[in-house]
Specification:
Largest sheet: 5 strands, antiparallel
Oligomer: single chain
Helix content: 40-55%
CATH topology of one domain: Immunoglobulin-like
Shape: rod-shaped
CATH architecture of one domain: Sandwich
Number of strands: 8
Radius of gyration: 57 Å
Structural class: alpha+beta
Length: about 250
């Protein structure tokens, strides 16, 4: 009975349905998968490309624009460098011109002052030659100016020889300084009588000569007055003495 029931269950009305499917080789299956993958990739690329074109943007166009922008930036950088070089050159030239102008302005000012001083000296000399004794020597316009360094003084004076046909005068100067130092009076002779006079103390002129120079004393000393002595030739006796009182 059991055998009969098993047979009826397997081959009877209640038996399971049998599906008959045709056999497909494996390479057709792989070919179908590849075709399906290509179709999916193509659809995806078409969708991406369509999206890019719909948005108005393409990679090739972006690369072209980027290259164009890079070229523009490089050109602007080159122009900027050239402009900076021109600006630096112009500023340097402007500084040179300003320095030259300032130097010329200073020279013109100095020349104007020198010209005014020469005119004043000439007028003063002419007034002396017209009334003075021929061959007489005089000291005029003596100035003593302290320098920034303590103990240093700069002096200026004008030597004049009267007479239209005066001969050339050759000699030397000597200063006798009256100093106040440590509460006592000190007399200092420049240059020393036994010493060879320096070039700045030697004079040689025919009508007039402006003399300028500098001397040093002790930093704690003060000049109260001085005497200018003018010697002619190698004479030990002064041809002229001129006293100057300082306040």
């Amino acid at each position: 009975m059991r055998l009969t029931r098993n047979f009826a269950r397997r081959f009877g009305i209640d038996a399971p349905k049998l599906a008959v499917r045709p056999h497909m080789p494996w390479y057709w299956r792989w070919a179908g998968l590849v075709v399906a993958g290509v179709l999916v990739a193509g659809i995806a690329w078409f969708t991406y490309d369509f999206g890019l074109e719909y948005a108005g943007f393409r990679q090739s166009e972006a690369m072209r624009l980027r290259a164009q922008l890079n070229e523009t930036v490089m050109k602007q950088q080159a122009e900027l460098a050239e402009l900076n070089a021109r600006t630096a050159a112009a500023e340097s030239q402007l500084q040179i011109e300003r320095a030259t102008f300032a130097d010329l302005e200073r020279q013109v000012k100095n020349l104007a002052q020198e010209n005014a001083r020469l005119k004043e000296d000439l007028a003063f000399f002419q007034s002396l030659t017209a009334t003075g004794k021929p061959g007489a020597i005089s000291v005029n316009r003596f100035r003593l100016l302290p320098e920034p360094v303590p103990g240093e003084y700069r002096y200026q004076l004008l030597l004049v020889q009267t007479g239209e046909r005066a001969k050339e005068f050759n000699g030397r100067l000597q200063f006798v300084l009256n100093l106040q130092q440590d509460g006592r009076k000190v007399v200092l002779v420049l240059p020393q009588e036994s010493a060879q006079p320096a070039k700045e103390f030697q004079v040689s002129f025919k009508l007039f000569q402006r003399v300028e120079g500098m001397f040093r004393i002790a930093p704690d000393a003060t000049v109260k007055g001085l005497q200018v002595r003018v010697f002619e030739g190698n004479s030990d006796a002064p041809r002229l003495t001129h006293n100057v009182t300082l306040s």
